[in-house]
Amino acid sequence: MKYQLQLPLSQEAVSRLRIGDEVILSGSMLVGRDQVHKRIVQSLIDHGTSPVDLVGQTIYYMGPAPAPNGQIIGSCGPTTASRMDPFVPDLLRAGLTGMIGKGPRSTEVAEAIRSARAVYFAAYGGCGALYAQCVQRIELLAFEDLGPEALFRIHVRDFPVITAIDPLGDQIYTV
Amino acid sequence: MREDETVQKIEQLVYERLLIAGVELPEDVHAALRSAAAGAEDSVILQAILKNLEIAEQTRLPMCQDTGMAVVFLGIGEELSVCLGDIRRAVDRGIARAYTDGSFRKSVVEEPVFQRTNTGNNLPAVYHVEIVAGDHLSVDILMKGFGSENCSSLRMLNPTAGEDGVVDAVVSIMRAAGGKPCPPVVLGVGIGGTSDRAAVLSKKALLREVGSTHRDSRYAALEQRILEAVQALGIGPGGFGGEPTALGVMIEQEATHIAGLPVAVSINCWADRKVHIELDREGREL
Question: How many whole angstroms separate alpha carbon A30 and alpha carbon A95?
Answer without folding.
Answer: 13
